[in-house]
Design goal:
By secondary structure, this protein is mainly β. The protein is about 10% helix and about 30% strand. The chain contains 10 helices and 42 strands. A hairpin with a 4-residue loop joins strand 29 (about 445) and strand 30 (about 450-460). Helix 6 (about 640-655) packs across helix 10 (about 705-725).
């Protein structure tokens, strides 16, 4: 059965809380001990590995170096390699002719089995990367040997508010420091050579449901970071901190607060005119949870903002309005955070059409002259080309199937909504849905082909207003019905639904406004993209393959099995004249996919690792084990009546499905509760209500659920388990 119907799937999502973690496979190098579940230490220490030593001295990473990244193509200095975030490598030792000789050079297994989504950085022969729970690693980029490891001892309770598990999308490097945002809202600075803590600062108000999964950026000596949490009712903002001291330099809020408290600046005062009702009580949303870019010539920092809180506009802004600066690209001055211009992709968003997706800068010939443009393929399905100096819209064209709007009016810059797009009167099946036509997975631009390579997906979604919506700190505050999803099962067979859900790698021509080529993939939620001067495009897949294609034609030239889902984007670097392709591998989602891929009883165990490939590499991965999942023979009987099971299902979908899967069908990251042992069921109340497994991120629900409700959830889970025998 297709499992894309609930909140669980909605988020992709999914893996925020775990009842248990599988034992990770052995590392190729001695790994540091796994993080303890006990209370965090005041100042966690870095853990060096004696067998490997870092370089004695480091050349400082500066803005000049990042701006001139093409002059040192062997390094990967910033999240997108350059300030423009193009994810293009000028290296060409690995090319369309030599790709046949590309082999695994080394691998490093992280000491966790949770998902990894980081873009690693490589600076002067050292790789800096992150894994789940915001743990930071420094590796020898040539051999994969661990130099040091730093565990920030993240507050496991704060992880309850993570949308999509305890992932981290990578570090930033500046000067002699490494910067990482921690899931619990801290920003930390580490010494590049030793991994020791230099400073840390809390970027959120303690107790508020914010989290950080995104990678920081550094511009003009300021470390810039946003956060997530819109679904839990927060007000979005982006902040800048002094790279040397950790002191906050400025903060720009993306939505207005309570007018009675006054406005922080003129931009917020003007934005408030586009809201109605008492929006601030629900937070407003607009979190800056991922994408940023910087143009040093124009001295502009670009940030992408997210959805409203709640999603359903009728509940947060009942009389309509554009609701600035939701679903927008906002240009700011990096020194002060001063507002310069904005472009809003979805005025009055009510569909979770975030504009936090990858922002990419390039110079394109447009209308007979070269324009400095900003490009984005946000969730809403339209590919945008914007003048990055002024915010003028140049182009907006559908890159996937779009049914919520007919087109974008280039004169007004506004989408022309379809008559059935808003779902306040009746449920509506629309495309894209909240997964988006493109999500967080980075795209890439190749200046030789003038093509953008985008991980795309077509997923219909049934939007249905939740007439009984009540905000809660215990679950997502969306204002849509929890059973909303792809298409109604009673109208369309599951197999027919699956045929409408497709993933692809799309080569988009931004000037011609159409795809040049498209490679169909087996699944949605595939990895980010790298393109190189070797006429190559690299992308990982949800099924664990790392593929290479010709950048000009899309012909697949090479593939390697990573033995685990790959969602991150690859990078390329060089050490001692040898080019490498590296990728963080490890599924960060528990969603059940079309065709029942993750509904199987037999699954490869999830693992989290760094893979590095080079020509004529000689390493190999250990044989992949297969975990046989069996329903416990001594499973307790189902004793609840029909009404109790129905109530249990409703509670499960609301409180549990986003982590453990829609209708109790999970993947191999967060446990599938159908396969829980009799011992787990014996401790059910202690786990679900009291938080007995908080060390793994499983927060107790005592504040929101009583013992009878927890028992009803258990009865529903048991009914699903017995059905799986």
């Amino acid at each position: 059965m297709l499992q894309l119907r609930s909140l669980a799937c909605l988020s992709a999502i999914v893996v925020l809380v775990a009842c248990s973690e599988q034992e990770p496979p052995a590392a190729t190098e001695p790994a540091a001990p796994p993080p303890a579940a006990a209370a965090p230490a005041a100042v966690p220490a870095a853990e060096p590995v004696a067998a490997a030593t870092a370089p004695a001295a480091f050349a400082a990473v500066t803005g000049e170096r990042i701006a001139a990244a093409d002059q040192e193509p062997g390094n990967w200095l910033s999240h997108g390699r350059s300030y423009g975030e193009q994810r293009f490598s000028p290296l060409d030792q690995i090319n369309a002719d030599t790709i046949k000789d590309l082999k695994l050079a080394w691998y490093f297994d992280f000491d966790t089995n949770r998902g990894v989504e980081a873009t690693p950085l490589v600076v002067d022969g050292v790789m800096y990367t992150t894994a789940s729970w915001s743990v930071v690693y420094a590796l020898d980029a040539k051999t994969g040997k661990q130099l040091w490891r730093y565990d920030p001892q993240a507050d496991r309770k704060q992880a309850f508010y993570a949308c999509c598990d305890v992932v981290n999308r990578g570090p930033a490097v500046w000067g002699d420091k490494v910067f990482v945002g921690v899931i619990d809202g801290r920003l930390i600075a580490l010494d590049r050579a030793t991994g020791k803590l230099v400073w840390e600062t809390l970027t959120i108000e303690k107790g508020k449901p914010y989290t950080i999964t995104g990678a920081p950026r550094v511009a003009k000596g300021k470390v810039i970071i946003g956060n997530g949490g819109a679904e839990f009712g927060v007000r979005g903002y982006v902040s800048a901190y002094d790279a040397d001291t950790g002191e906050m330099a400025w903060r720009f809020y993306t939505v207005p607060g309570n007018p009675a408290d006054g406005f922080e600046n003129a931009a917020m005062e003007n934005a408030a005119k586009t809201w109605t009702g008492e929006w601030w009580k629900g937070g407003g949303g607009g979190t800056v949870w991922d994408s940023m870019a910087f143009d040093p010539e124009l001295d502009l920092l670009y940030v992408g903002t997210g959805n409203g809180s709640p999603w359903n506009q009728r509940l947060r802004s009942p009389d309509g309005g554009d609701n600035l600066f939701l679903t927008s690209i906002v240009a700011l001055r990096p020194d002060t955070g001063e507002y310069v211009w904005h472009y809003q992709t979805v005025p009055g968003d009510t569909w979770d059409f975030t504009s936090t997706q990858h922002i990419l800068l390039a110079d394109l010939e447009w209308g007979g002259k070269v324009r400095k443009v900003l490009m984005q393929a946000p969730k809403n399905g339209f590919f945008y080309v914007i003048d990055r100096a002024t915010g003028e819209l140049l182009g907006a064209d559908p890159y996937v199937k779009v049914t919520w709007a007919s087109h974008v009016d280039l004169e007004t810059g506004r989408p022309v909504e379809a008559p059935n797009a808003r779902y306040d009167l009746s449920q509506q099946a629309l495309q894209p849905g909240p997964f988006g036509g493109h999500n967080w997975h980075p795209m890439a631009f190749n200046p030789a082909t003038n093509l953008i390579y985008v991980p795309t997906q077509d997923l219909p979604f049934l939007y249905k207003e939740d007439k009984a919506f009540e905000p809660s700190a215990a679950h997502y505050n969306l204002g849509i019905h929890f059973d909303a999803g792809a298409l109604p099962e009673d109208n369309v067979k599951a197999g027919e639904i699956a045929k409408t859900i497709t993933g692809a790698l799309t080569a988009w021509d931004p000037v011609a406004k159409k795809p040049r080529w498209r490679v169909e993939l087996q699944d949605v939620w595939n990895g980010g993209v790298l393109t190189t001067a070797g006429n190559l495009v690299f992308q990982g897949t949800n099924r664990g393959q790392l593929n290479a294609y010709r950048a000009d034609t899309g012909d697949r030239l090479w593939s390697a099995d990573g033995q685990t889902g790959i969602h991150a984007a690859p990078i390329s670097f060089a050490v001692d004249g040898q080019q490498f392709i590296a990728i963080s591998a490890g599924s960060g989602t528990a969603m059940a996919l079309p065709g029942g891929q993750l509904a199987s009883h037999s699954l490869p165990p999830n693992r989290s690792r760094m893979l590095a490939f080079a020509l004529n590499g000689s390493a190999s991965l250990p044989a992949a084990a297969v975990v046989e999942r069996k329903v416990a023979a001594d499973l307790p009987a189902v004793t609840g009546n029909t009404d109790a099971l129905a109530t249990g299902k409703t509670l499960y979908q609301g409180y549990c499905s986003r982590c453990h899967g829609d209708n109790v069908v999970s993947g191999n990251v967060i446990p599938d509760l159908r396969y829980s042992t009799a011992d787990v069921h014996a401790q059910w109340q202690a786990i679900v209500r009291d938080g007995a497994l908080l060390g793994n991120g499983m927060m107790g629900f005592k504040e929101w659920l009583d013992a009878e409700q927890v028992a009803q959830i258990q009865q529903y889970v048991l009914s699903r388990a017995h059905a799986a025998k």
